[in-house]
Structure formats: structure tokens, C-alpha cells
Amino acid sequence: MLKTFLIGFKDLRLAFRDRAALLLMLLAPFLLTIGMGFVTGRFSGRTSGISDIPVILVNQDNAQLGNALVDLFNATELADLMEPTASLNLETARQLIDSDEAAAVIFIPEGFTESIIPKDGQTLSGEVISIEIYANPSRPTSAGIVQTIVEEFLSRVESGSIGGQVAMSQLITSGRVAPQDIPAVGEAMSERLSSSTTKPVTAIKLKQNEVGGEALQFDVLAYLAPGMALMFLMYTVSYGGRTIIAERIQGTLPRLLISPTSAAQILGGKIFGIYLTGIAQLGILIFATTIMFQLKWGDTLGVIVLVLAAVFGATGWGMLITALARTAGQVASVGSAIMLIFGILGGSFVSLENLHPLVQNLSKITPNAWGLDGFTTLALGGGLADISTPVSALVLMGTVLFIAAVRLFNRQGIAQR
Amino acid sequence: MPNILEVKELVKKYGDFTAVKGISFNIEEGEIFSLLGPNGAGKTTVISMLSTLYTPTSGDATIGGHSITKDPMGVRNIIGVVPQDLALYEDLTARENLVFWGQMYNLSGKPLSARVDEILEQIGLTDKAKNRVKTFSGGMKRRVNIGVGLLHKPKLLFMDEPTVGIDPQSRRAILDTVKDLNKQGMTVLYTTHYMEEAEELSNRVGIIDHGGMIALGTQKELTQQVGQSETLILHLEEGANAEALAKSFNGIKGVDKADASDHAVTIICPEAEDVLAAVVGKANEQNVKIRTIDIREPNLEAVFLHLTGRALRD
Ligand SMILES: Nc1ncnc2c1ncn2[C@@H]1O[C@H](COP(=O)(O)OP(=O)(O)OP(=O)(O)O)[C@@H](O)[C@H]1O
Ligand SMILES: [Mg+2]
Asked: For the segment A208-249, what is each residue's pLDDT rounded down to a tens digit?
């Protein structure tokens, strides 16, 4: 076990002494992120890559809270991000999702407001009517943004209404407010909710507001930076795989095999080295973009877990490529090809939402797609629980690929070929 | 002295090609044993099997009582190996290489760092310890390569042609190191295709050719096989028919054996002076011009020539 670590750390050190490798591991994704950031206007203050999300609002509530939500989606601050349309019929609205003309439908049922703010002189029924969101599965990111905004709205309603209710019942019992004044108080409350001037609207803004930061729009870099990092993570894992073959040729692998170190320890060490290098790479890129572009990657624990899982999945691919290749050159060329294919398939260049459903399904074999899914969720304010699907998928992917690769290595022997 | 190494009928096939054809020999504790043979003889293949890198096709060997086929881990702990080709991390410094390999031999902490200092001193690279190996000369790299093999103080050290392709000064240093190590009690198996190295270093020599052991013993025992013969080498002018000349020498009284190679005829005879006149006479008869004549005392080269009809170096 100890030797496995020692071999891994040795490889980490060697990777960071290889200038060409550093260039591709760190500089290339960094520069491409900046480059694409310029293309999409991130640095010129224009709007983000994801914009004009088509969302349909079906407001059958037609009371204060329902109207407040509609107003929120029509607020000027969200004008770039959202393209809301009103519809009266839920069925027709849902058909727009099926035909991919809408990213999400927000259904506000009748009586929604009343279930929270009692009408004049009435008491609460105790039963809350819920808002329903219909998400377009082929536009997970856009639908996710819509959902986040609605959830944020609801959480404000909740805290407002609970606080409000308690306050109101206290005011009534203490005799300071007459029951007939209650609707006015409710109105003031819903005004507060929809006023986007006092409260910023997107999840990212809200998150920042909580820690007292300034308001930002959905940051396109939060999509570009992980996309590039994940793409060049594929370079790193194939680079690591290449060192297995290189060590065989330069004689250090045979030398390891005749030392009192088992073949399993050696292979384990080489894999661990790839894993460590990948983690170091993503860690540095995340750190650098955080410092230099004030990029918010999101929940720290979530980011750590996702990095560990993404590198694990990618390392599995690196091992498989190495086990199948005969020469270091083959690993390098196959590795570069896979890096690009996975980069495109995984959404590093073009958001998956714009791609054919077949491609979207195919993208599920790439660590890029899952990783990007997870990073976007985190950047939009999600936590560890929200990325359980991509994390599980990445771990499963890594496990399957590892088993396959180790079997191939066992059949061939890692020393002789 | 007991045997530290016992090799029994080792065979190695690569596909249809048999690289090692049933080799057997023993090495006593404390000796330097040389495997002498030309390129492609099978020296590296033998070392690879003994160091547990390749499994033999058949046969076995025991090292310190551990079988190379049944207990390879037991073997690995007591042997040190200096491979023929450099096996180092060029982007690590000399010291980092030694530390890493020491760790692979289960050394750690203070003892490891003390041992690394000792080795650096021994291979004369203390000053360069912090330089990356890729900045080293060929001879310096070879010295690090040797140092790695010594870290865990192996009982038996395999050195596979450690002096190939380096300058005479480094070569001298390496040969002296081998002798020093042996004086300190290390048993050494040394392979080479330089007869002089085998002669200088070893207590006993095994001559290996085409995968077979064709002679084995002390240098004295081996030279006695060719009798007290001397070797007479005639270097001819270009274009001379060496074959025909060699054939005509076989009739001369006092010539045991005459062989032709490119532009040269090698004659084995009890006393070179006795046949010299007749040999030169024959050459004159055939109008062959002789450029130079070498006379050599019995040596391993002569033994190899005697046994194979070929020179050690092509
Ligand atoms: N992996 C291999 N596959 C096939 N043939 C091999 C392999 N390794 C060695 N050989 C062949 O086996 C024979 C012995 O090779 P080996 O390397 O043991 O010779 P050697 O005595 O060490 O030669 P040298 O002095 O050149 O190092 C050679 O003919 C070589 O071509
Ligand atoms: Mg060899």
C-alpha cells in the first residue's frame, strides 16, 4: 500500500516536471477558457452563453403570489436570461416541451395564493397547493435554472409567509392590526417578493447575497471552465497511461518488477499517479479561475466530491486506452482523439442541449458530460445531494473501466508484450 | 564456501527461437563469476530469468535457497541488479532516483537517507546529487544505474555489461568499484563481451555462445583447454584470399588450427616462433602481402576461438 502511494507521488512529480505535459494539462485549458470567455462576451460585460431560456408560465392562480412569480420572470434583470411566455392551458404548454420549443413549464394552480395567504376574514385550510414545474429533459441546464429561480421564490414565500403569519397573528391578538387590514399586509408582502430591485433574482445572485457579495449574472465561465478542464483531464489520463508503456521501454518498469514490489502494487501505483495528477490539475484550474475571474464553482464539498468522481471516471478511460494500445505513440494519438471527441460529445464546446438526442445519449459514456452536469448544478447553487446522479454515474463508469483494464493487463502481463 | 546460486538446466524460448539452451552453473559465496560471450549469446536473457523478470521455459535456479520460479519474492530481496540498459527516471535528480529505488527496496527514513549519501559518495556523485539525471554524461548515468543496484546491500549482485559504451576512465572506475564491493563481501555475477574484463575481475568464467555454456572454470583451467597454445594472427592486405591461405597453413607442421576471418588468419600453435617462417613462406608463395603479425599468449580470446572458430568480437 505504501509503495503504491510512493509510486503515485513519484509520477505526480514527474508529470509536473514535464513542460509539454504542463502546457496541455494547465495552460491550454486555462487559455481556452479565457478565449471562449471573450468569444461569448464574458469579459466585455455582455450576456452569458445560456440566454433566452424559453419558459411558459401557466398562471391559473391570478392572485398576489402567482402574479408575483410571473412578474419575477418578466423582470428586467432576467430579460436576457429568460424568455417567458404566458399560456392559459397546461396541455398546450406541455406540448411545447415535447416539441422542444420550451425548456420548462411553470404551472401555478388556482388557489395557490389563498393556500398561503388567507382571504379576508378566512383562516388557512392548512393544505398548501404546490406550483408544478415540467422540465424539458433534453435541456437540463436551462430547466435547472428555471427550477432554481422558482425554488428560490418559494423559499422566500415560505419564510415570508411563516414570518408574516406569526407576525400578523401576533399583531391581531395584540390588537395593533385589525383583521380587515390583513389583505393589505399580504399585498405588501407579495410586492416584496416580486421586487427584483431589492432582491437579486438568480440562484447565483441569491447565494452571493447570502454571503454579502455583489450581484452577478449566470456566469458563462461556470460552464466553460469546467468544460475545458474536463476535456484536458482526458489528456492527463492518457498521458499517465502513456507513462506505463514508456516505463516499460525505458526499463524502469522491469526494474520495479524485479524489486520486492508486487505487480499489483506497481499497477496500483501507476493508476494512483494518474489519479493524483488529474486531481492536481483540476484543483489548480479551479483555484486559478476562482482567484483570477472570481468564478464561483459552488458548494465546496460538492466540488471536491465531484472532482474526485470525475477524475476517477476519466482515469478509467486512460487505463482502458493504455491496456488496449501497443505503443506509447498509440496511447498518445488515441488519447488526443478521445480527448477531442469526448470534449465535443461531453459539451465542452457546444451545450449539449443544442445537440441531437442521439448525441445526448452517446454523451453519457463520457466523464465530460457527467462532470459538466455536476459542475453546472453546483455553480447554480446546488449542493452535494443535487449531484448524486452524476457522481454515481462517474464512479460506476470508473469501476467498470478499471475492471476491464485490469483484466486486459493481467492477460498480457504489464512487463512483457 | 557454499553456493549462493545454483542454476539447473535453464531454458528460455522466445516463440520458436531458443535463446538459452539448458544452462547450468553454480556461484560460490564471495566470488566474482563472469559470463563471457559475444552479442546475442544469451547473457541478458540468463540475467533476466535469474532476477525473476522472465520465467524460464524450463529448468530452475536457487538463490540463497530460494527458487526463482517458486519463491521470486524471496529471491528479489537478496539480489541487486544493474541492468544492461539504463533504468532511471531522467527527470528526477540522482538523489531522488536513489531515494525512490531505496523505498522500493523497503528502506525508509534515516537509514535510507544515510544509505543514499553513502552510495552517492561511492559512485562519486555527491556534488551532482541535486542535478537531474538527464543532464548527466553517459558515464555518470551508468554510475547512478549501478548505485541503484547497491542500495539494499544485496548478497548477490548481477551486473549486465555495465561498461558498454563509456569512456575508459569511467570504465576503470566501474571495474574498481566491482572489486571493492567484492572485497567487502558481495558476490558478483558479471556479464561482458570484453575478455579483458573477465580476465581482470573474475575468479571463474563461464563462456556462453548461442545460448549454451561452452566452457566453465578458472581462467587457468580454461586456457589449459587450449593447451599451452599461443595465437598468431596475420593481418592481410585487402583483397587477399584469407580462406585459401588458412587452408594451406593446416598442412604446416606445428600448426594446430588455422581459421580465416576478414583480412586475417588466426593460427593456434604451441610455439609461434616455430611456425612463423613457414607461414610467411606460404603467404609469399601465394603472393599474399602480410600487413602485421600479432603473437598472443594463451588467453580467453584464444579459448573462445578454439571452441567456436570465431573471434569474440565481430
Ligand atoms: N524479447 C525477446 N524476443 C525475442 N527474441 C529475443 C528477446 N530478447 C532477446 N532475444 C534474442 O535472444 C538472443 C539472446 O539475447 P540476449 O539479449 O540475451 O543476448 P546478450 O548476450 O545479452 O547480448 P548483448 O551482448 O548484445 O547484450 C538474441 O538472439 C536476441 O535476439
Ligand atoms: Mg545483453
From this structure: 222 223 333 456 777 788 988 999 999 999 999 889 989 999
Q: What is the 3-state secondary structure (H, E, C) of chain A?
A: CHHHHHHHHHHHHHHCCCHHHHHHHHHHHHHHHHHHHHHCCCCCCCCCCCCCEEEEEEECCCCHHHHHHHHHHCCHHHCCCEEEEEECCHHHHHHHHHCCCCCEEEEECCCCCCCCCCCCCCCCCCCCCCCEEEECCCCHHHHHHHHHHHHHHHHHHHHHHHHHHHHHHHHHHCCCCCHHHHHHHHHHHHHHHHCCCCCCCCHHHHHHHHHCCCCCCCCCHHHHHHHHHHHHHHHHHHHHHHHHHHHHHCCHHHHHHCCCCCHHHHHHHHHHHHHHHHHHHHHHHHHHHHHHHCCCCCCHHHHHHHHHHHHHHHHHHHHHHHHHCCCHHHHHHHHHHHHHHHHHHCCCCCCHHHCCHHHHHHHHHCHHHHHHHHHHHHHCCCCHHHHHHHHHHHHHHHHHHHHHHHHHHHHHCCCCC
Q: Is the ipTM of this complex over 0.85?
A: no
Mutation pick from A9, A10, A247, A258 vs chain B, by most beta carbons of B within 10 Å, is: A258
Express the helix, strand and coil content of chain B in percent, nearest 5 each.
40, 30, 30
Cell numbers for A16: 509536473
Reported as a pLDDT band with limits 50, 70 and 90, residue A277 is very high
Kind and range of the H or E run holding B110 = helix B109-122
CB contact under 8 A, A10 and B92: yes
Nearest C-alpha in A relative to B54: A416
- Cell triple for A256: 520495479
CA atoms of A316 and A53, how far apart (whole Å): 36
The whole-model pTM stands at 0.72
Pairing of strands B32-36, B187-192: parallel
Instruction: For ligand 1, say whether the CB of B42 is within 6 Å of any of its atoms.
Output: yes
Q: Evaluate: CB of B14 within 6 angstroms of ligand 1.
A: yes
- Beta-carbon count within 10 A of B9 CB: 13
Over the stretch A168-199, which tens digit does the pLDDT of each residue have? Answer: 444 444 444 444 554 554 454 445 444 433 33
